[in-house]
Amino acid sequence: MANQHYQLEIPVEALESLHLEAGDSLSLSVKPGALTLTPLKKQSASQELSIRRFLIPTILATIAFAFYILWQKNALIPLTGNNSIATAVIFVGELTGMGAFIRLHLQKIAAETDPVERRTEWRLAPTLLLSIALIQAFASVTLFWAIGYLFQAASFDRLTATILFFVFIGIINYLMVYLVTLISTPFMMSLLIVTIACGVLVAMVTNSQQLWWQHNFSFLGTSKAHFAWTFNATLIIAGILWATLIDYLFVPIQKRLPKNWRLWILRIFLTFDALCLLSIGALPNNPGLSHFAHDLAANLLILGTGLPMLLSYWLLPNAIKEFRFFSLGTALGMMASAFLFYGIRYLSLTAFEIIMLGLGISWLLLLMQNIHTLYTNQPLSYQIKLESQSQVTD
Question: Average pLDDT, whole number, for the chain?
């Protein structure tokens, strides 16, 4: 009796691109009109390792916190404020969370088999680590600011405070360990959107009674606004994260296409915009020289966004038609908004700033997404033969 078997010959280049070796297991999925081969990942060991790496520092930090509050000899530990649970979680969480993230990320880079990819990852590591550290600190401070706003003057006994500290530190450490597996260009784009949206929304809510919209959008970062640091920190962190995203997007592409001058021009424009956004947050719209510098940075951001919009057909000749039309429409929308504000004073300053910021950031994110799609998401295709093998059995 003969058993019929079939064999696929997979090109070496395809195996090397996925870092596969002889003996590795693949999963075969059969769909109507298609066969899909997917490498099987060994997850159990890595999951156990991840649990150890966020649980051990959490336990050690909790023990240190317990000894600290015993040494303080306070019967009640406040939830927020000085010498509180929040203060301990913010500082200790930054140390343990970033420590875990840095260690795992560097191990991930060291384990990279492709020397070009490894050098690229080392090149990108400093800006990435700085961005993640700032985002973690900002998120922790904002979280406990909101908790303190909801639970004012809340205090707990030592045991309850220790348990709460353990829970918060455990969540932070787990998220930072899990974050290592998510780092990619699309994730960085999503993180940038969430950072801007959440930070600006918090600033708007906290200043709603100040009637901030009767002044201007930049009022949220001035000395007259409540918790102006949330708005300014959002723009600063967004600028740094933006610069990190640009590095993450362009460095690998330009290693493959070093002489593509269109990419160099786009990178210069995007980096310039990131610096302008950072400057807007670092230079609040307070009276005096700061007001002049703030307005200058804002106008330069509009200029640095509008020029590549108008030049998008020339800078990205292979982009899809929808993106070109969107670029042209966005540029026309920005020019119309400028005319309605500067020309006939129809728009208020607040409306003008929100429209320009919304259109500009939306287009820049879409631009980076199109660059990522054009230059990095190009699947490799091969033609392979299906060969028949027969085995004779008794």
Answer: 82
